[in-house]
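dumping these here so i dont lose them again. two proteins, back to back, each one seq then structure tokens. dont judge the mess
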Amino acid sequence: MFYYVLKYVLLGPLLRLVFRPRIEGLEQVPASGAAIIAGNHLSFSDHFLMPAVLKRRITFLAKAEYFTGPGLKGRLTAFFFRGAGQIPVDRSGKEAGQAAIREGLGVLRRGELLGIYPEGTRSHDGRLYKGKVGVAVLALTAGVPVVPCAMIGTFEAQPPGRVVPRIRPVTIRFGEPLDFSRYAGMEREKAVLRAVTDEIVYAILTLSGQEYVDEYAAVAKERQTAEERGPRRAPLG
């Protein structure tokens, strides 16, 4: 119930006022039945903008840190994420990937929409990064279509580190559903998972027009952070 209060009364109208989203291809999202919406991830606001414009409820797998932050900000963040129907997933440890798969399959088996960011994390520089194969595992295991989605302009409106978004229009563009039924029963084949993931990311790239980087976003972030800190000096003596 609170999901719809948040969407139609509390948060949805505010997001539409701030971002004035232009929606393209909404008819590509199935009116019923399970499906994966796979999008690029440019801004913290993405978590709320896509649910605000979709006619159906969508559930995202969100990192557990969004639900455990300290202080008032942490409590508010957790409140909004739970209200938006997000599921916390612990991304640390060996079992993290399997936990995310189990949670995602549960959503799909209920015939619902599942939202996924194949890059695994927000882009730190607005470019599109290599996708992780979890989206392919879910699509092939559940046997559901994947609808590519591009968020355009959200990075400029609220880049990483910016708390209050700039008031500017954004575009949310949905593409034609991707059917991977030809790979049924092959969800354990690494080459197939890579091919499916790359096809999904390419569809997002076509919609978004971003620059593509054939590297995982988390790796690129770590390298940039290390470069900004500079080389460590050897201790004296």
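---- next one ----
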Amino acid sequence: MNAIPPLLDHLVLATPDLASTVAEFAGRTGVTPVVGGAHPDLGTRNYLVSLGGSSYLEIIGPDPERSLPEGAHSFGVDGLTEARTVTWAISPPDLDAAVAAARAQGYDPGTPHPMNRRRPDGTLLEWRLTDSDTAHPSGLVPFLIDWGTSPHPTTSGLPTTPLVEVTATAPAPDEIRTLLTALNTGLHLTEGPVGFSFTVETPKGFVTFC
């Protein structure tokens, strides 16, 4: 099993307090995440760190400059009491073909739909991703993303903490593995409560986040 999942685009570390989590990451690693941008329709904002290559970490939480009704934010940040790795994304070579292939194997990752945000420098990023009620509720099965003609977030000079390993636990690992196979990816899974962890190499040594 690969220590890093094939096709990994990014990991999602969601938090109810964005400023606090960014400060904690910087304190533990010696690397300060940079502002990614805001998602106006979702009331969230993110900070980013490169994980090496074309993968990155997204730290996402409520946007303090935008108030939305409870439950309107993405990635369940309204229901969190502390920062937690909630899901991940893969970027297949052909998004629509990957969705069709997964459906043919009995798993529907959802219909791709467009999203966008502006970087602090004003660059508009536009992408498509799968995100629907058909996705596996554990978050251990990735959503799919296609950046199209937009520059990938890792091309904007992000600070880097190279990714060493991603692991997860699930009550029924074989069920998750079947769905991962349908998406042509993998994840190191062991039996236990639903949860993620990832380890990065930093100026302060190897650091693991859950």
